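We were asked to recover a plausible sequence for a given structure. The inputs and outputs are reproduced exactly as logged, with field labels preserved.

PROBLEM: sequence recovery
POSITIONS: 221
GIVEN STRUCTURE:
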């Protein structure tokens, strides 16, 4: 059985994990995925990344002395055991039976050479990232648990569930707006919702210092 344990004081997906049992698990935190040619293609969870690593479908890419070094699962386990003896701030470790495994930040798919997919998946996570976890009515930035998604034009008025009609909304504003249009509720949108041209996960600002190493592969952020 594997247990995830975040390092003290680190932040996961923008929320403090120190002493907070409700914080996102290390296994659910983010890993940047590169294709065989070191091009960023998507972001996945640590859980999924370790599965790919164990199945020899990927390798961990790590910056060491200004150079990137690659490790397969066996090598990464050895490196993790060495690093665990002197843990650094911002490192996360997963407790397995008899050893600790360091959570990777970047992996490279060893058999995948396609270019990044340009189609952006329409889902809750990407919508929150597009709107920067900010209520599009009152402008307050909130943790995910305090946010909801609002149909600008309510479904009862014929509004559709699309990028152009869904916005991030805090619970208070959602209750205030109810089943009305913004005009009817006398509320104004901060910006007009639109479909992102690129994957929001690959274009959001890197604010968590643990993911600083991503910038080498995401020069546009």
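RECOVERED SEQUENCE:
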């Amino acid at each position: 059985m594997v247990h995830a344990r975040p390092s003290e004081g680190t932040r996961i997906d923008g929320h403090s994990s120190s002493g907070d049992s409700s914080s996102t698990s290390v296994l659910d935190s983010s890993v940047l995925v590169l294709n065989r040619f070191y091009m960023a293609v998507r972001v996945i969870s640590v859980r999924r990344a370790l599965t790919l690593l164990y199945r020899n479908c990927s390798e961990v890419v790590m910056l060491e002395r200004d150079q990137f070094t690659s490790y397969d699962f066996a090598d990464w386990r050895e490196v993790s055991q060495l690093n665990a003896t002197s843990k650094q701030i911002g490192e996360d470790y997963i407790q397995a039976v008899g050893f600790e495994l360091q959570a990777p930040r970047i992996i490279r798919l060893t058999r995948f050479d396609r270019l990044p997919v340009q189609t952006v998946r329409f889902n809750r996570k990407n919508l929150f990232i597009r709107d920067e976890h900010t209520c599009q009515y009152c402008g307050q930035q909130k943790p995910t648990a305090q946010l909801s998604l609002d149909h600008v034009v309510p479904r009862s008025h014929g509004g559709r569930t699309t990028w152009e009609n869904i916005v991030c909304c805090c619970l208070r504003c959602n209750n205030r707006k109810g089943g009305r249009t913004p005009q009817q509720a006398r509320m104004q949108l901060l910006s007009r919702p639109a479909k992102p041209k690129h994957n929001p996960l690959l274009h959001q600002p890197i604010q968590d210092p643990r993911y600083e190493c991503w910038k080498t592969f995401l020069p546009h952020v």
